[in-house]
Write a structure and sequence with these properties.
It comes from Thiovibrio frasassiensis. About 35% of the residues lie in helices and about 15% in strands. It is an alpha+beta fold. A hairpin with a 2-residue loop joins β9 and β10. The longest helix is centred in the last third of the chain and has 20 residues, at about 405-425. It is globular and about 95 Å long.
């Protein structure tokens, strides 16, 4: 395939940072179709529009997801990318790979595809960029039979579940994110591979409120590790930070001298609910006001630890802009025990209660968060059998009319009459 002049893309090779353009040019020496990728992208830069057509329907036998169709709208100019499909692979929990597995995947992709990869996509999948329709079935056979590797999700289905490093490497993990992620991935194979939902649905699992996989911003079902008792305090370690014996933020900013640590300025005054104070040399916390922002724990990890009664908060309905713009997930279940002994039955119950409602009332291409927004949070909470909390209120009531359920009106009236008669009898 001929090389293409790419003056606009060439600009991206200038400067101190590595460039995907340089990588593509190097890869094109082995895989000439990469020259056409560069040519088409240059044309898109010049025309200021994409030259990929709508994905269309393409996949492997028995699966409705995992392959994203890619077709050029100028195939006569760039035949190497006339069809150039994307393959999503289900990544292991926390993306722990062996070097041997990565080498095998790359070798297979050099055999069947362009050799280009995306490590990783927004949902988490290991993404293989660019192959032809005839190569999909042999690639899939080798992946599943020889590498024991499955496809991820795409389309209106459960997308590939993703989790943080959790207890494998993080001291803040309040539940085993890796085991929950893997267990639900195996439990919901049909939902991952055979689209049946109104639109996409994403699980993300963060072991603590630091939320390192941005679950609360990017997933329909966010499981955020938390605790329901008091933060544990090591008062001797608190003094160690105050006296300069320990570096704050676990030494993360050791490259710059920030001066002497000031617990009032750097911890107490930054608490969003002002629930911390010093009494003499002792640090005090009003745990009933703590919102689990994690700031104090991150600054003084030797001194502060999560409580021992650990579990997770379930937040529902985050998404990027689709119909009604970006939105964060809504806290739905304040605390849920994450119990491996029950095979996570309590989590599965919440998931399927959401799905039953959403699949009945959701519109085509409507994320669950958009369904909640359209129908109303009070209705969703009633479906979930959750008692409304102050945290569920977005703003004070602006509608002066109060609408009661019929049973609430009748029941309340009867109670009032009985109470009135009882007082009069006395």
């Amino acid at each position: 395939m001929p090389k293409h002049d790419t003056p606009l893309l060439d600009e991206l090779e200038k400067g101190p940072w590595p460039s995907f353009v340089t990588d593509l040019k190097r890869q094109a020496e082995k895989k000439p179709e990469c020259f056409d990728i560069l040519g088409q992208l240059e044309l898109s830069f010049r025309d200021k529009i994409t030259h990929w057509k709508h994905g269309g329907i393409v996949g492997v036998f028995g699966y409705g997801g995992g392959i994203v169709g890619r077709y050029s709208d100028v195939p006569e100019r760039f035949p190497g990318v006339a069809h150039f499909h994307t393959v999503r692979l289900n990544q292991p929990s926390s993306k722990f790979y062996s070097s041997a597995k990565l080498r095998d995947i790359c070798d297979l992709w050099e055999k069947y595809g362009s050799g280009m990869t995306n490590m990783h996509g927004s949902t988490g999948d290991l993404v293989l960029l660019g192959t032809t329709t005839p190569n999909l079935e042999p690639l899939f056979y080798d992946l599943t039979h020889n590498l024991n590797q499955d496809l991820g999700g795409s389309g209106s289905n459960l997308r590939t579940p993703e989790c943080c490093l959790g207890r494998a490497r993080c001291e803040w993990g309040c539940y085993d994110t890796q085991d929950l992620c893997h267990s639900l991935t195996m439990h919901y194979q049909d939902e991952i591979h055979r689209p049946a939902f109104p639109y996409k649905f994403k699980f993300k699992f963060s072991g603590c409120p630091n939320d390192c996989v941005a679950a609360i911003a990017r997933s329909d079902f966010a499981v955020i590790g938390t605790w329901r008792d008091d933060i544990r305090i090591d008062q001797a370690a608190v003094q160690g930070y105050i006296k300069g014996e320990f570096a704050p933020n676990a030494g993360a900013h050791s490259g710059k001298d920030w001066g002497k640590f000031d617990i009032k300025k750097e911890v107490l005054d930054l608490c969003p609910t002002n629930c911390m104070w010093m009494e003499g040399d002792a640090l005090k916390i009003d745990n009933s006001e703590c919102t689990r922002c994690m700031h104090c724990l991150n600054v003084m990890p030797r001194a502060l630890r999560p409580g021992v009664k650990q579990g997770a908060t379930i937040c529902v309905g985050a998404k990027a802009p689709i119909l009604d713009g970006a939105q964060f997930a809504t806290m739905t279940i304040p605390f849920l025990e994450i119990n491996k002994d029950t095979e996570y039955a309590e989590v599965i119950e919440v998931i399927e209660k959401i799905w039953d409602w959403w699949m009945e009332v959701g519109k085509n291409r409507e994320r669950v968060g958009e369904t909640i927004m359209r129908i109303g949070l009070p209705t969703f909470l009633k479906v979930m059998e959750v008692t409304p909390l102050p945290q569920h209120i977005k703003e004070p009531r602006s509608n002066p009319y109060v609408f009661w359920q019929e049973d609430e009106v009748e029941g309340g009236f009867e109670r009032d009459v009985k109470e009135f008669r009882k007082r009069n009898a006395q």
